[in-house]
Amino acid sequence: MLSINDLRAGAYLVYNGDPYVVLKHSFIKMAQSKGIMRTSLKNLKTGKVLEETFKGQEKLEEADIRKSKANYLYREGDQFFFMDASTYDQFFVTAEQLGDKKEYLKENLEVEVLNFNDAPIGVDLPKKIEMKVTMTAPGVRGDTAQGSVMKPATLETGLEISVPLFIKQDEIVVVNSETGEYVGKAQK
């Protein structure tokens, strides 16, 4: 069981029957009473975020989240299929469970799968992912007159990001999967 003092960013808990991860927390001590913990919780099944306040002696159930390595295989409708790296079992995660992370999935990408009660409920992506630029306008010399040094680019998964003017079509770029921003050009 978790006390309110255990509710730190990254902690997993079961709340109203669903697994949640703590995104933010702040402890507030009242004058004559016990303190309270204000939290921002993300539902690991639906991706919805809620604000919740817990009082002094409340106890919460710790979520049994098991992590395992898997490789992304393919997409079929709203289902994204993966293969467990150790057992070679195939399973799927829905588009709703993945949320925006589905924009970064490309064949054979190794991810960390979050399992709750032995069922996959989501994935954690590598922080940096290499992707091929499939479409972008050519950078024209003198385009920086307006102060803009970035241009739009479409990547192999359909994700659209801003890249520097010197990036050309068919080049491989590194993208931050948490922010969706260009990090750099991939090393050959």
Structural overview:
The protein has 188 residues and is mostly beta strands. The chain has three domains: 2-62, SH3 type barrels (Roll); 65-124, Nucleic acid-binding proteins (OB fold (Dihydrolipoamide Acetyltransferase, E2P)), CATH 2.40.50; 128-185, Beta Barrel (OB fold (Dihydrolipoamide Acetyltransferase, E2P)). The chain is built from one helix and 16 strands. It has one helix spanning 95-98, and strands at 2-3, 12-15, 18-28, 36-43, 49-55, 59-62, 65-76, 79-84, 90-94, 110-116, 119-124, 128-136, 150-155, 160-164, 172-176, 182-185. Strands 1-6-2-3-4-5 form a six-stranded antiparallel β-sheet, with no helix packed on it. A five-stranded antiparallel β-sheet has the order 9-8-7-10-11. It is globular.
Q: How would you sum up this structure in a few lines?
A:
With 188 residues, this protein is mainly beta.
Q: Could you name the key traits of this structure?
A:
188 residues; OB fold (Dihydrolipoamide Acetyltransferase, E2P); 6-stranded antiparallel β-sheet; mainly beta; SH3 type barrels; globular
CATH topology group of the largest domain: SH3 type barrels
Task: Give the helix tally.
Answer: 1
The separation of the N and C termini measures: 49 Å
What is the strand tally? Answer: 16
> Mean of residue pLDDT?
88
Spell the H/E element sequence: EEEEEEEEEHEEEEEEE
Physical arrangement of strands within the biggest beta sheet: 1-6-2-3-4-5
- What is the C-level CATH assignment of the largest domain? Mainly Beta
What is the percentage of strand-forming residues? over 45%
CATH architectural arrangement of the largest domain = Roll
Number of domains: 3
Structural class: mainly beta
Shape: globular
The largest pleated sheet is described as: 6 strands, antiparallel
Helix content: under 10%
| Uncertain residue ranges | none
- What Rg, in angstroms, do the CA atoms define? 21 Å
